[in-house]
Amino acid sequence: MTFPLAVTEADLTRDAFLGGRVMAWQPRHGYRAAMDPVLLAASIEARAGDSVLELGCGVGVASLCLAARVPGLRLTGVERQADYADLARRNAGDAMQVVTADLTDLPADLRQLTFDHVIANPPYYASGGGTGARDPGREAALREETALADWIAVARRRLRPRGWLTLIHAADRLPETLAALVHGFGAIAIRPLAPRRNRPANRVLIRARKDARTPATLLAPLVLHEGAVHVSDGDDHSAIARAILRDAAPLGWS
Q1: Per-residue b or e along 142-160, where b marks 16 or more CB atoms closer than 10 Å to that residue's CB
Q2: Residue-averaged pLDDT of the chain
Q3: Which of 101, 123, 149, 152 is spaced 20 to 30 Å from 172 by Cα?
Q4: Whole-angstrom Cα distance, residue 223 to residue 54?
Q5: Beta pairing partners, 22
Q6: CB proximity list for 15: less than 8 A, separation 6 or greater
Q7: Which of 3, 183, 26 is nearest to 91 (CA)?
């Protein structure tokens, strides 16, 4: 297999997710999927036969974790970085169609489709400055070049009527996210993700329904780690986080 940006086998690792139910090739250096795409996958209430579009799919971990929990989905991923898109194809095989494209310039055939679900893990840092990442792939994944409002506008256009958008994003981007969701979405639910009890949330999961008028809901936070501080090496995930990360347990919206 060839990689457009000179990625070789020595530059890759093959990593386990969901206790090994999903195995994914990733760059050894650069943006690497970890907990966030797994939490995103756990929060999507899809059913067999549903169509799912992932914007900015990276190497495909979120969609593949969702497929491990819900068989029979029709998955499409869009990724603008060609080397990451190639890895997503390698990881997914026939399980997902991967399109190499900028989400603001989708191919004509994809612009004709609508989906039951659109999911995304947009770059956490707003445009300007930089994250300090030396690897260009990691910098592109973490520092947005396409405005968050454009991610949400594209998602709305690709959703069928009453379809669901699900995002994981940085907590400090919540006001901006909600402002963008005002246009065409309702039934917004927000679940804060707190690293430990009595700590501020640094991530949020957000779900919204196209054309819905139901009021917004702020849910109880999901606490990811046990204890007040990290005291030793090893797994200190909370019980619910362990169930999600190891056993593909769904994370409901109630």
Answers
A1: bbbebebeebbbbbbebbe
A2: 90
A3: 101
A4: 25
A5: 17
A6: 23, 24, 25, 26, 32, 33
A7: 26
pLDDT digits (tens, 9 = 90+) for 46-99: 999 999 999 999 999 999 999 999 999 999 999 999 999 999 999 999 999 999
What pTM did the predictor assign? 0.89
Contact partners, residue 70, CB within 8 Å, separation at least 6: 44, 46, 47, 48, 50
Of 33-42, 142-151, 237-246, the one with minimum mean pLDDT is: 142-151
Alpha-helical runs (H) found in the chain: 35-42, 61-69, 82-92, 108-111, 136-142, 148-158, 174-181, 239-247
CA atoms in the 13 A half-sphere facing the CB of 91: 33
- Give CA–CA dist 190/185, Å, rounded: 13
Q: Which of 63, 38, 39 is nearest to 51 (CA)?
A: 63
Q: Are 143 and 56 in contact (CB under 8 A)?
A: no
Residue with tokens 């990625």: 7
Summarize pLDDT for 203-225 with one digit per residue, the tens.
999 999 999 999 999 999 999 99
Q: What is the pLDDT of residue 177?
A: 97
Q: d(Cα 161, Cα 164) in Å, to the nearest integer?
A: 9
Residues 6+ positions from 38 with CB-CB distance below 8 Å? 17, 18, 61, 62, 65, 244, 245
* CA distances (Å), origin 249, targets 57, 230, 243: 21, 24, 5
Q: Which two tokens stand for residue 70?
A: 């819900």
